[in-house]
Design brief:
With 232 residues, this protein is an all-alpha fold. It has one domain (2-231). It has helices at 2-23, 32-44, 46-60, 64-88, 97-122, 127-156, 161-186, 193-217, 220-231. Helix 6 (127-156) packs parallel to helix 8 (193-217). The chain is globular. The N and C termini lie far apart (55 Å).
Length: 232
C-alpha cells in the first residue's frame, strides 16, 4: 500500500502538468490517443538515454559544466527533439502551432515521470521531496518542452526553408541551454542554490505562458472560429 502511494505521488505531477498544457489548446485539441502515444514515447526513451549518458560519463568524465550541458541536458533534449521531429513533425494531426507544444510537453513529461518514479522507488522519498521534485525537475522538463514545442511549431508553419531550419535549430538549442543552466545550478553543491533556481523557474514559467499564448494566437482555427461567430 505504501509503495502504491509513493508511485501515485510520483506519477501525479506529470499527468497533472500534461493535462494543464493539453487544456490550454484553445482552438483544436489534439486526439487524446495521440498525446498518450507521445507520452509513452517519452517513457520508452528513458533506457536509451540512460545507456548513452552512462557511456558519455565513462568517456568524458563528470565535470560540472560538461555533465550539465552535454551528458545530462544534451542527451535528453537532443533525443527528445529527434523523436519529435522524426515521428510527429510531419504527422497529419500536427495542424496548428500549439500542437508542437502539446507533443513536446508530452514526450518531456513521459521521460520526467519515469525519472520521478525511479527516484521514488530507489531513493528514500518523502512527501516533501516528491513535492520539491514536482515543482522543480518535473515542471522543468515540461517547460523545456514548451520551448522546444514552440519553435517546432514555428518551423512546421514557416514558409521558407531557411526559416524552417533555423527554428528547428532553436528547438534543440534553446531548451538544451535552459536545461543545462538548470542542471548546473542543481548540481553546483552551493548552499545558495535556491536563490538561483527560483528566479530561473519563475522566468521559465513566465516565458512559457507567453509562448503558449503566442502559439495559440497563430492558430488557423482561431480565424475560422471568429468567422463562424460573425456568421451567427
Amino acid at each position: 500500500m505504501l509503495l502504491f502511494s509513493i508511485l501515485t505521488a510520483a506519477v501525479a505531477p506529470g499527468i497533472s502538468l500534461l493535462t494543464y498544457f493539453y487544456l490550454k489548446d484553445r482552438y483544436d485539441a489534439e486526439p487524446i490517443h495521440m498525446v498518450v502515444r507521445v507520452f509513452l514515447l517519452g517513457v520508452l526513451i528513458v533506457l536509451p538515454i540512460m545507456v548513452i549518458q552512462r557511456g558519455l560519463l565513462l568517456w568524458l568524465g563528470d565535470g560540472p559544466i560538461l555533465f550539465s550541458f552535454t551528458v545530462s541536458a544534451g542527451v535528453e533534449e537532443l533525443l527528445k527533439w529527434f523523436v519529435l521531429y522524426h515521428i510527429i513533425f510531419n504527422h497529419t494531426e500536427f495542424d496548428e502551432p500549439y500542437d508542437g507544444i502539446v507533443y513536446a510537453v508530452a514526450i518531456s513529461l513521459g521521460f520526467a515521470t519515469v525519472e520521478n518514479v525511479l527516484y521514488a522507488v530507489f531513493q528514500p522519498a518523502s512527501v516533501g521531496s516528491l513535492l520539491i521534485r514536482a515543482l522543480l525537475p518535473v515542471s522543468g522538463h515540461a517547460l523545456f518542452g514548451v520551448t522546444m514545442g514552440y519553435y517546432v511549431g514555428k518551423a512546421k508553419f514557416a514558409n521558407e526553408a531557411k526559416k524552417k531550419r533555423n527554428f528547428l535549430l532553436l528547438a534543440a538549442a534553446v531548451p538544451l541551454a535552459e536545461h543545462g543552466v538548470y542542471d548546473y545550478i542543481m548540481g553546483s553543491g552551493s548552499t545558495y542554490w535556491v536563490w538561483f533556481i527560483v528566479p530561473l523557474m519563475g522566468y521559465l514559467w513566465i516565458k512559457g505562458v507567453r509562448k503558449m499564448n503566442r502559439a495559440n494566437a497563430r492558430s488557423p482555427f482561431r480565424m475560422l472560429g471568429h468567422e463562424e461567430e460573425i456568421k451567427l
